[in-house]
């Protein structure tokens, strides 16, 4: 069943991330007639009313914060008076804790953190959800809206939420880097750059389609015949200090930055 957007709904900041969610909701035919995007540039967000400042009229029943984390201090004082006991506040901000958000919006009906990734636009996203408020109806409503965009797991604590953020929120950038490296490697072997890019992309898409049906380990096993060429390549990735160490270090760096952002945001409130 297509979920209903509570109206009025305000998307405060609607750039890359919130814009991708709107694109997903449009693709899923969610009724966006009660939704207003607020962004200083006024650049139209397709499918929703777009304005440059907070609108007057009825208090919003749903507010989604889609500004950069560093902008919270600028946005919260003007927004807080509109966020009352009827308003569900969803925050997309990386590294800003539920406690900090609650301090900024003390009257909100419920504060829910959502950590999405850009494939929500294709209805193939991952969005971690977390709330410290015991409001089953608000949780259900937000989950229904997010679940149309892809996977929507609830997290028991903020550490789990940050872990999903590091793996999935940032994930498309990491996967894209790997595919680009594969393409560049092909180029260095003499392939035409455009062809190398197309081959890497198609390999990514094809592997993703296979991964729906079988595990990553099985895919690798089926590609690599014993003593064959792939096995030699995998041995390089699997060696001590190879791909897994690199990925662990990559995630640790992202988590450390999240912790730093959270501390900075908490110190300001
Ligand atoms: N991008 C991702 O893949 C990703 C993944 C996970 C989480 N996130 C989170 O999503 C949030 C947004 O990131 P993003 O990549 O979408 O950034 P973005 O593209 O820069 O979008 C930020 C939006 O905030 C608006 N804005 C700036 N100042 C404002 C103000 N004073 N009042 C209202 N709106 C204001 C901007 O308006 P204009 O468009 O008019 O400039 C823009 O629409 C961040 O908190 C980030 O942690 C992003």
Q: What does the model show?
A:
The model has no long low-confidence stretch (mean pLDDT 95). The longest helix has 25 residues, at 243-267. With 269 residues, the chain is of the alpha/beta class. Strands 3-2-1-4-5-6-8 form a 7-stranded mixed β-sheet, with helices on both faces. A two-stranded parallel sheet has the order 7-9. α5 crosses α10 (243-267) and α6 packs across α7. Helix content is 49%, strand content 12%. It is elongated, with a radius of gyration of 21 Å. The two termini are 40 Å apart. The structure holds NADP nicotinamide-adenine-dinucleotide phosphate (NAP). Residues 12-18, 38-41, 43, 66-69, 71, 74-75, 92-94, 115-118, 169 line the site of NADP nicotinamide-adenine-dinucleotide phosphate.
List keywords for this structure.
269 residues, alpha/beta, 7-stranded mixed sheet, two-stranded parallel ribbon, binds NADP nicotinamide-adenine-dinucleotide phosphate
Describe the largest sheet. Answer: 7 strands, mixed
Note the gap between the termini: 40 Å
* Shape label: elongated
Helix count from the secondary structure assignment:
10
For the secondary structure, the number of strands is 9
Strand content: 5-15%
Decide which structural class fits the backbone: alpha/beta
Rg, rounded, reads 21 Å
Helix content: 40-55%
Low-confidence region ranges? none
Name every ligand kind in the structure. Answer: NADP nicotinamide-adenine-dinucleotide phosphate
The ordered string of helix (H) and strand (E) elements is EHEEEHEHEEEHEHHHHHH
Mean pLDDT: 95
- What strand order characterises the main sheet? 3-2-1-4-5-6-8
């Amino acid at each position: 069943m297509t979920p209903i957007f509570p109206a009025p709904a305000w998307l405060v900041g609607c750039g890359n991330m919130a814009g991708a969610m709107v694109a997903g909701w449009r693709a899923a035919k969610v009724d966006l007639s009660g939704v207003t995007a607020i962004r200083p540039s006024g650049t139209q967000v397709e499918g929703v009313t777009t304005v440059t400042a907070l609108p007057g009229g009825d208090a919003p029943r749903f507010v989604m914060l889609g500004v950069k984390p560093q902008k919270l201090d600028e946005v919260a004082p003007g927004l807080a008076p509109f966020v009352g006991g009827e308003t569900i506040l969803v925050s997309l901000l990386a590294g800003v804790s539920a406690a900090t958000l609650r301090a900024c919006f003390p009257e909100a009906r419920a504060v829910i953190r959502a950590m999405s990734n850009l494939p929500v636009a294709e209805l193939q996203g991952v969005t971690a959800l977390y709330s410290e408020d015991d409001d089953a109806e608000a949780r259900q409503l937000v989950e229904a809206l997010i679940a149309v965009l892809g996977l929507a797991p609830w997290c028991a604590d903020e550490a789990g939420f940050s872990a999903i953020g590091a793996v999935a929120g940032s994930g498309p950038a990491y996967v894209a880097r790997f595919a680009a490296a594969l393409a560049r490697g092909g180029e260095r072997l003499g392939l035409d750059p455009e062809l190398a890019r197309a081959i890497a992309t198609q390999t990514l898409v094809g592997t993703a389609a296979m991964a729906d049906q079988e595990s990553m380990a099985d895919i690798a096993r089926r590609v690599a015949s014993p003593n064959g060429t792939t096995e030699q390549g995998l041995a390089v990735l699997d060696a001590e200090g190879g791909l897994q160490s690199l990925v662990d270090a990559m995630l640790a760096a992202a988590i450390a930055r999240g912790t730093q952002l959270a501390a900075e945001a908490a110190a300001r409130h």
